[in-house]
Amino acid sequence: MKKLYIKTYGCQMNFYDSEQISNLLSSSGYNITENSEDADLIVLNTCHIRDKAVEKTFSDLGRIKKSFKLSSNNKLKPIVAVAGCVAQAQGEEIMKRSPWVDIVVGPQSYTDLPSLISKVNKVEKKELVNLDFPTIPKFDHLDQNVNEKKNLIFFNYSRRM
Length: 161
Known about the structure:
Elements: E1 2-8, H1 12-26, E2 30-32, E3 41-46, H2 53-70, E4 79-84, H3 85-97, E5 103-105, H4 113-119, E6 129-130
Parallel strand pairs: 1-2, 1-3, 3-4, 4-5, 5-6
Helix pairs in contact: 2-3
């Protein structure tokens, strides 16, 4: 069995997406590991909304690269993927500053990970960047006249004095 290490940054949506990535890759033979040094595939699922998100991502990528050099068991370098919002915003910069990264996918494209993983070492890296942001029709079927409806309740979470 291949081992998958996922580090999730930030928002609840990313934790949900990481769970979905894990489920998606389990069908490709990956099991979760808690240790990045044991991993055959490392996924950093990033959140751009948090403070210093970009810096944290590049810092972790530097630590990952350093762990390749420190590995003494002649193990092959794991596949490294950066997913999520930082990947979407910084995709080309990630590949430029961290050329050991194999895959960059935006939050709408992580379902392409199995096919991208199968292409690692078979094609040029530039083809392993998927920053497409297709529209999702999930809101297409909602009533467009919501604002006209009566009896809507809005919650105010501001602090009351």
